[in-house]
Queue: 3 jobs
Job 1
Amino acid sequence: MNSLRVRLPLLFLAGIALAGVITTVIAIQLFRSFAHDQALTSLNREASGVAALFSNAVEASYGNPEDRSPPRFAAKNLELATGDKIYLVGPRIFPGQENVTGLKRLPIQTIDWQSGKSLTFEFTPPGADRSYLAVATPIFLGKTSVGAIVVATKTTDVSQQVNDLIKRLALAGLLGLVAAALLAWYLSRRIVKPVLQLSAAADGVAEGNYAVSVPANAPGELGHLSERFSEMTDRLAEVEVMERNFLMSVSHELRTPLTAIRGHISALLEGVVDDPELEQLSLETVEAEATRLERLVGDILDLAKLDTHRFTVTREEVDMGTLLDQAFETYRDEARRRDIDYRQELSERPVITSDGDRVLQVVGNLLSNAFRATPDGGSIELSLAQVNGSVQVAVQDSGPGIAPEARDRLFRPFVSDSTGGTGLGLAIAKELSAALGGRIELESEPGHGARFQLVLPAR
């Protein structure tokens, strides 16, 4: 009973059954009122007709002083024709001869026949064992009411029509429930089957299996849910691969400088290196590897803080011209050593409100990436401009360029198309630029270098 496959059809059928019961009750009440009204209309019509005939006959009899015989009625034939009972109520206007009219009489006190009005009432005729619904229509002699014609039908006849309706509605309801049950079974299969497939897929994902199958061509919102679930599993699988690669890359990047440091220190301690120049070279190598290790650890911590949104930025006035001069000077010696055409183009020197240290870090990462990508003898240009309320810092290199399919991957941690880097620079630059309220844009064609541009709000 806890299964959606069972509960859904039961709820569907319960709703239909409840709606059917309510509809049936309302229909019965309406039909009972309608049948009662129709019976009264029929009785009124018959009573009016019989009363008119009897009134005319009485008028004719009283209009003949020589022969005042009572009118004769084929009462049984009229009752057979109408299916109702016909009675006469009132005083004896033809003393000693009323029985020849063929109409059964009712006690004079049955109704107020003297009012001269049509009456509707229920009564039990003499000798009967059930109630009748009746209509009384007055009989006139001139303008005087001399009695009334009563036409009556059994109340059970009206109820019988209602009972017949109930039987038909019950049969129709039973057939409707059977049809609804079949429809509910079909719909529950259509709806529940993809839900069960999604549930099984969720169980598989919970166990670490992302290669799960989701229902295809599911209807409506279930189809949308299936598509989103499939996208989620793909992203989870991608994140797992990235996490595994991240750990492997971190392990490798940390182990490389540590191995170099340990090797040189061991050589120095064991006395393998006895030449002062070689000792100095080993110490410089240890220092360089320690600096590299420090930079790597710092980059990893920065990236972790950015990913967890625990990174804070300060708000201060930043002279972008002075900041870019500082960043440019940092790489001047390397450019001279590698014979790189290193230029700076500052069309404006705006002052913005931002975190100067973090802006310098982003620009430094972009320049570091450009120097790794640019071969000796190439060219790198650092430029600054203010356009449409934004400050744009661009780094253009003459490296091999970046293929379109590799651009998104380039901003992921530990992904680098050059050697000598950790693969964290561009990832940190992208996250830092977003934290500063800006973005990084990339323009590149394979074989024609790349242009990375930091865009920050001017205010």
Note: The radius of gyration is 52 Å.
Job 2
Amino acid sequence: MIRTEEGKAASRVRKQAKKAKPEGPKQKPGRPKGSRNKNKAEVALNPELKRIQKMLQSLLNTIQGTIHLTYLVLDGHFGNHPAFHMVRQCQLHLISKLRYDAALHFPYSGPSPKRGPRPRLGEQVDVRSIPKEYLKETKVEDGFETRTYQIQLLHKDFPDPLNVVILLRTNLETKAWANVILFSSDLELPYDKLIDFYSLRFQIEFNFRDAKQFWGLEDFMNITPTAVTNAANLALFMVDVSQVLMCQYRQDDPDFSVLDLKAYYRGYRYVTETIQMLPQKPDDNLVSQLFHKVAALGRIHTVKMPVPSG
């Protein structure tokens, strides 16, 4: 992401406006006279969300008719109504995370007031005292208790109800606790699916890590658009290929890693080229031992040598 000069100037103006103290008489408390309610369904997307929406629509047009997508998973930075609105405009459901102290409310269920509209927000949710009827699961592991709640709640910044999953984790010895609040725009999504789908977001981080660390995404020196696109796509493609190849090796060696895979195929190539230079090909048993011995030289995890046959 390259920031334009206009964007940098606008950012500096906003920072200076925050630091500057307002001059003149203080504004009276309460709502200014003549102000009108804002329609929360009308949201102006910032440049970041517009850029993401453009890429998302391009992807949806590319896979149209082949893959049907339902959810878009975004991290806590996008746990807000503008991002919610952007995703719904693309006919997808958002799965994201709210702040741990987000002000969530039950729908109002009291009597209608004599004057004015019926309130929308009811009692605010206290994550430490959620009614048991919303408890979906309780797990105790390694001295920690994790309670999972699922509720349809309201937030003042969102015009629509949210499918909220709250995970409350408590240290049974010290009684220290922490909570995580996940949410989705799909009100029918079960709590376990919502947690699983959000957890998949971390796999994306692992894929980029592998592409940078093992397959050259961080090292290529191309500068033209086509060459950069090819290099980036090749690095990410190799992440998929390596995962497929490692599946067969991990059946017998659960610790088999990407470095082990690269060492194996590098050793395989070395042995193949060496054998082609020999005037007479060795017997198959010796060739097999050479393959395993040379492939194990650069491995991180040790491998057992095969037992010679005969």
Note: The first strand starts at residue 71 and ends at 73.
Job 3
Amino acid sequence: MGNWKRTFLIIWTGQLFSTLSSYVVGYAVMFWLSLETGSAEVLAFATIASLLPQLLLGFFTGVYIDRWNRKKIMILADTFIAVCTMIIAVLLYIGETRLSYFYVLLAMRSAGMAFHMPAMQASVPLLAPEDKLMRIAGVNNIIQSLSIIAGPVLAALLIGLFELSVVLMFDVAGALIAIITLLMVHIPDPAKKSGQKTDLLAEMLDGFKEIYRKPGLFWLFILAILATFFIMPVAALFPLMTLNHFSGNTYHMSIIEIAWGIGMLLGGAVMGLQKLKSYRIILINLMYLLLGLSFMFSGVLPPSAFAFFAFITVFGGISMSVYSGAFTVVLQTMVEPSALGRVFSMYGSVTLLPSMIGLLATGYIADTIGIANAFIVSGIAISALGILAFLVPPLGRMVRQEIRK
């Protein structure tokens, strides 16, 4: 692993361009949907389209990620995403602007990400020393946060200068850069266990067993599943919270996205602190509390307090950045490298499953209890999970072990 810094520098360069272009296109599409329809249901369906393929495929893709060459999987996934985006861009260029095309675009990109993301996450422990994983997770979150900060600004600028079909081509260019950088590095495959099964269902069950036989990891999964049930509907309502509750426009939506990105940037910087690398479970539990409180306080703000909404959103971004980074490192250190593909893809699926239920009810929630009240209810529930996380015995033991280090 002597050249791990050089390898990650090359990979991060490609990921920066790829992630930034993806965020630009994602914001452009969501802004267009918000402005054209003003519908919570349309935003919810768009979010579902971007998540459902990952949910369904995630139970199977991990098996093939652990079987096949992970570098080739990432390259093929990026290629597939680029081709799908190009097809939709051509359809929009010839005047086909029906909502269904946006849903198809989001769904096809999601199918590609069902392979790419777990393959990338499962490859990290094979490329870097264990004591550097928290720092690497922090850098990954910084790349995401920079994309979140710049994404809405660039999306608004590009939509003003070009047709949406042209904006989509920036995503194609980003994917090509990511492919080129991946071709420049060597990503080893994990050693296979002797007697490893070759049956799809049996390998899937092995992935479940890898989680179930470690009580602390099992409870982390349960709490993550419960949390996403409350997080995802609110995440889908952020644009409408800005438009309807705070009487904002595209400019104000961009401010909120930038505020979230600044929070993620700060969270990524926190992840790089050497003193925090041993407190992963404590960080995960505390971030539930911070995220819940940020949602709850956002919901109680009056319509005139948009500036406070943006300020509170920064803390929401910090919490999600630190939480996702710490959770990723926990999986990378507690799970055998030969099973990481299955565990990461399974984690993606099982946490998306309850969120889909919540997203389907987004329109009903917004119309029945109101968008602001949805923030309050979700915030209280997520904060309660943060308190519960310290009381669950297996997690409590892991917390005490971290304190004693």
Note: The mean pLDDT is 78.
